[in-house]
Each structure stands twice: as C-alpha cells, then as structure tokens.
C-alpha cells in the first residue's frame, strides 16, 4: 500500500509472468564515489528504496558490481523480498580500486555470484538475472549457458541481457528466453536503437540505462525547456516522458540517491506529451 501522494502512472509491462510498472528505479547511485563502497548516508539510501516502493515503483535495478555488493545489500535491508516488487540484478563485471569495470563472464563466476546476490537480496530466487556485459575472453554462448542453467535450476526466475547488439540478442534467444535487454539509450544517445527495435518486435522489455543521460540534458536544452515550461515540468521529466512514449516495451530506470529526486522522476509519469511534442523530441537527434 502506497503512503506517498506521488503515484506511478507509467502503465504496465509483463516481465515473464510478473506485471511491473514501466517506470522503475536504478539503484547504482546508492553507493559511494565512483560506485565504490558505501554512501556517506546509508539511512538516506535505504529511504530512497523505500520511497520508490511507496511511489508505486515495482521494478528495481541493481548489480553485484555496484559497490560491489553495496547496492544489493541496501535494497535487501530496506525492503527485504516483497512479492510485489521485481528486483533485477546483474553479474558479469568486476571492479577494482581504480574504479574500472572489468568484464568477467566466466560461467563458474556467474554461478558463484548468484549465491552472493541471493544472500544480499534476502531471497530464494532472483526475479530477473541479467548478464551485465559480454566478455571478450569468454564465449558469449558459455556465459549465457550459465544463466540458462540457473533459470532451469530455479535460482533465477527470468534472464536478461545488457550491453548487447541485435545479433547477440538473437544468439542468446537460441539458448534461453530473454525477458529483457538493458542498453544505454536516451534522448541524446540513440546508439541502441537497433536493439530497441528487436525488443519491440519480440515483446522483450527494453531497459534504457542512463535514461536522463547521467543528468546531462544540455544538448537539447532549449527544446526540453520549451516543452517543460508548457507542462510546468522539468527537463528531466520531459526526457523521461518522451522515453515512455517511444515504445510499449520501454522500461526506464532513472537513478538517484535523493528521495526528492525520486519523487520528481516518478511524477514524470503523469506528464502527457502531445503527438507534436513527442515528434519534435524524436526528430531532435535523428
Ligand atoms: N547495464 C549497464 O551497463 C548500466 C550502466 C549504467 C547504469 N545502469 C543502470 O541504469 C540506472 C540509471 O543510470 P544512471 O544512474 O547512470 O543515469 P541517469 O538515471 O540518466 O542519471 C542519474 C543522475 O541524474 C541525477 N538525477 C536523477 N534524477 C534527478 C532529479 N530528479 N533531479 C536532479 N538530478 C537527478 C542523479 O543524481 P542524484 O543522485 O543527485 O539524484 C544522477 O547523477 C543506474 O542506476 C543503473 O541501475 C546500468
């Protein structure tokens, strides 16, 4: 039951057999600087997660590499494993103190990581387990096979991919049902448009990461401001509302560490852009 006055009006999408609201929450920003270690204020981080659920968000994205382990732990502490929230985590990237993200798709590593994620998320089954990024040193097929095996064993309910081309989506679909694809996509960066098209054609959820371009919306600032003013909204809200209009399979996960920013992002689902506004935004960078 929500105790917030902000409600999630983004419509719904089926991930496997689970219905979620299309606007979710990305929890990468709940960690320390460079997404390493704990945030300065863990209490506020847990509050953000709780506020997301109170606002009607039931799709939360995380990864074992955020912290590492910190984001998953904070989610587990904040909400445990509620039946009505789908927590999507990922494996396949290592971190180091220099802040690098190192692809590691070794099947034994994936099988090990799922056990650590189950513990931190305080659950018996990962709702959606995403392969974080293809690893040039491991055959993609072997990594995907590990995810498929975890699904067969019941440790994972649904399998997703991240940072993949249309060719790799098709290849993985030969091995396992692919429920979602998570690629970078926003108003300014449409590089993953071809993967989005494959998802739309096959009813696969498309999770655009950095949906507000990491909060850098200067490139189309004037246009965004113009439309935002007409709706008494913000640039970010217009950018999110545009994404939701792009495709029925679009599941944006704006990331924030601030409860007020979270509410503002959910309020974007109440914006109703005109066809003309959507078209002007679509034309802006194409
Ligand atoms: N699969 C992948 O390889 C991959 C890669 C990167 C990210 N992700 C996922 O995608 C999610 C979203 O991406 P992202 O966090 O990089 O980028 P984003 O959502 O486009 O932007 C996040 C940035 O915008 C700021 N922000 C958000 N809402 C705001 C608001 N209402 N007002 C003011 N500032 C606001 C945040 O700062 P504040 O904290 O101050 O609000 C943060 O600096 C991540 O959390 C993560 O779950 C996946």
Automatic annotation (TrEMBL):
The keyword Nucleotide-binding does not apply. Keywords: Oxidoreductase. It comes from the Archaea. The keyword Flavoprotein does not apply. Gene3D superfamilies: NADP-dependent oxidoreductase domain. GO terms for cellular component: cytoplasm. GO terms for molecular function: oxidoreductase activity. Residues 22-284 form the NADP-dependent oxidoreductase domain. This is Aldo/keto reductase.
